[in-house]
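If I may wish for something, please walk me through the protein I am sending here so I can picture the backbone:
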Amino acid sequence: MSSFVSSINQNISISKKEDLFRPTHCDRAKLVGKIALGILFFPYGIFQILALIATKKYSSQITGTSSQALPASAQKFQIKTADGATLSAGAFGRSVKPMNAQKFIIAVPGMGGCWQAMAKNLAKISREKNCIAIGMNFRHKPRSIRDLTRDVAAAVELLLKNGAKPENIVLYGFSLGAAIGTKVAAAYNKHNKPLRLIADRGPATSKKFISHHVKNGCLKCLAHILRLSSNWDLNVTKDFNSIPNANKAIIYAKKDRMVHYHNSIYYNAKRASGIKAPNFIKLPNGGHATQPQDSKMNNLLDKMLY
């Protein structure tokens, strides 16, 4: 029995073909169109500049810090992304099985979160579920949603390239991490790699998030223009519904004040096509930070892992 980090090759490389979130010709055409609009229509160009400034200012808040002491079982390591970014990560548990038989959970934090703050829970899950639990942080100052999806995909590729099977990997995402995890899980399932997903109180769209939190009409209009001018527009409803029911689970709260119920992945996915999978936890009186009951969370983890 050896530590997980010592048993894997961390120096993996992700080819262009394996990079599911590399820019496409369509993406480049959209970028050219945005630049052209910015040049031809001066006011729109101003919004593009403002969106760029806002991105540089607030993107550093995507990943937070934690002063909590790490459990002794924490194994720190780094993850390299397809575009060269380096991510901080931590693993809990020891390799007691061959990689192709080992179960994994990758925990993706929310806005301002970090794996260090989740360390105690990850250590507990690893012990109780006999799996390797991995926590990861997003890169410092991401420039777009694409950067965040590449970060999560890099953690998945690290496991796959070391022999793990996609059906043995569960992505657990909280809040923003749930939305990004949904995009990544959908992309892998589309490529016949049945990654599993637990989406915990994630926003379905950035459009509705702005509409709920920005009440002033003029500011709301400005925020939506900035959203469309930047690379931070997000909508994961179709992504969630494209994942087979057996490969996804969801946690939602009707009284969530951060991710309003009508902007939740659960509500929007249900409206779009209905959620028939029994894999969900409802927090009827819970908010954004409410912990699900241990018994319900254990049952959900068992369903998705085994």
User: Anything to note?
Assistant: The radius of gyration is 19 Å. Residues 59-305 form a domain with the Rossmann fold fold (CATH 3.40.50.1820).
